Amino acid sequence: MMGRVAVHDLVESFGASVTIADANVEAARELADSVGAGKVDVRPVDVSDASALDSALDGHDCALNAVNYYYNLAVMEGCLRKRVSYVDLGGLFHMTRRQLALDARFRDAGLTAVVGVGADPGITNIQAARAVRDLRTIRSIRIYDGILPPAGDAIVWGYSIATILDEVTMNPFAYRDGEFLELPPLAEPEAFLFAPPIGLRTVHHSLHSEVATMPLVYADKGIRDVSFKINDFGFTPEVLARLKVLSDLGFASTDPVKVRGADVVPRDALVAVLSARASEAGPAPLEGAEELVTVVDGADDGGPVTVILRTMNVTPRWGLDPGSVMTGVPPAIVAAWIANGDLRAPGVHAPESVVDPDPFFQALDHRNIGTRISVERGLKARSTT
Questions:
Q1: What dotted CATH number matches 2-119+318-373?
Q2: Residue spans per domain, the chain
Q3: Which of 116, 91, 114, 120 lies closest to 293 in space, CA to CA?
């Protein structure tokens, strides 16, 4: 879904020459036809096939990787072989760390790679970059993702179900008191007030890439705490509870089990069943909303201050829901900037390191994805002497 958004935006907003490289050629051709005949090429490719990947990358300026994060390193290696710059949607903390280790190789090749440029990570990282711009020191960065869940009790997901299962089962990290802290899944729930129509939601920790990069990027400003929380991964609490039961029973496991003499991976079976049910239910609903909120506590020349950025989308486009649109547009913007030379930063970077916040948020605003900023500080007592 995010790749679909990116293709539409690259063509419509930038007039880019785009190749869809995908294992599902039929779906890719349908997308190319919906964008407009002659504007988009289609290449069949399985990214785990290095030869096919190299052939698809050849001659392009930037690869926008919208496959599951499991394959991020494989696509990056292909980019290094074919000297193509790179953008992706995120690496779920651990993969992001492995990707950052390729910095020297991309820098030596003169290639720009920006990892984690979706909604979150992505917009949230650039929110932080804007918030800290005038701060001398940073105490904490707290990130909240509020999603208005679809009505009903169906298990309908807004992004990769495999990634959601990872987030449900893998321990999240927070950066607390200057140290990385591992927590249990769905830890430390709290109530957070998002803008209407999302409203008050219970959010919890989730494994995310912002926590992997921001403590490193802002170390020189003395940062002590970074956290990321989301409300039930976009499900209703009741639907998440059902998914959690399946996970607790072992159906999200990637360890094979014997079934009638054959090795079966429980997660593969679960994803297949859920996907089949989702197909039977028809297209996902287009109504919805998502708000990303980044709260930065620090100090500027005037003393302690809290800077808050809120980015909201309630507008579906291209037959896709607002959350997908808000995730698929940012990598299109950054990939186009890299391809046309407006963003050149050899190496592997988090978005907060290299993406200029002001033109980025202006670009989002042109697509009806609005951002607000507020600055809060205490009133100083007036001296009586």
A1: 3.40.50.720
A2: 2-119+318-373, 124-313
A3: 120
Separation of alpha carbons 322 and 274, rounded Å: 22
* 351 within 8 A of 334, measured Cβ to Cβ: yes
pLDDT digits (tens, 9 = 90+) for 85-138: 999 999 999 999 999 999 999 999 999 999 999 999 999 999 999 999 999 999
Class of domain 124-313: alpha beta
CA 280, 286, 287: angle at the middle one, nearest 5?
Answer: 125
Determine the average pLDDT of the residues in 213-228. Answer: 97
**How large is the average pLDDT for residues 202-216?**
97
* CA distances in angstroms from 106 to 49, 83, 112, 326, listed in the order given: 21, 9, 7, 28
Q: Which two tokens stand for residue 115?
A: 């990892």
Any alpha helices (H) in the chain, and if so which ranges? 2-14, 25-35, 50-57, 72-82, 94-100, 103-109, 123-131, 161-169, 210-217, 237-248, 266-281, 322-339, 351-354, 357-366
| CA–CA distance, 159 with 365 (Å, rounded to integer) | 23
